[in-house]
Amino acid sequence: MWARWVAMAVILCAALFIGSGVLDETPMTNAQRATALENQLKCPACQDLSVAQSSSASSLAVRAQIKVDIARGMSDSEIIDQLTARYGNAVLLTPPAGGISVVLWAVPAGIVIGATGVIVVVMRRRKKISQSAATSPEKSKS
What we know:
Blueprint lengths: L1 H18 L10 H11 L16 H15 L4 H12 L12 H42 L1
């Protein structure tokens, strides 16, 4: 039974790895890099729009800055660091992990893991009790 689960897990991991595009060797063009960065950054003047979605003056300025930085040969992380230094972490659509966000993710995960452990223990105890109850009448008949 465990072999089936292991085989399914291996197949799932292999499918996810192949489908992730990790094996693709074609590098992104400058336009693709710019688009990817624009989708990762939030418009400095808008509430919940990315730089790519917004048409505000600040978004247009960020887009232009991204294109200039890419043309200069800066890496994606350097561009993001530069914009974060200028606008703060509020410019990131996905804020960095740390502080309270780690706690907000860890507590529910801990609760799920703990609840799973409790369920496993309760199910094993019930199984032992039902097995001992099933064997008890047989011993008394002999």
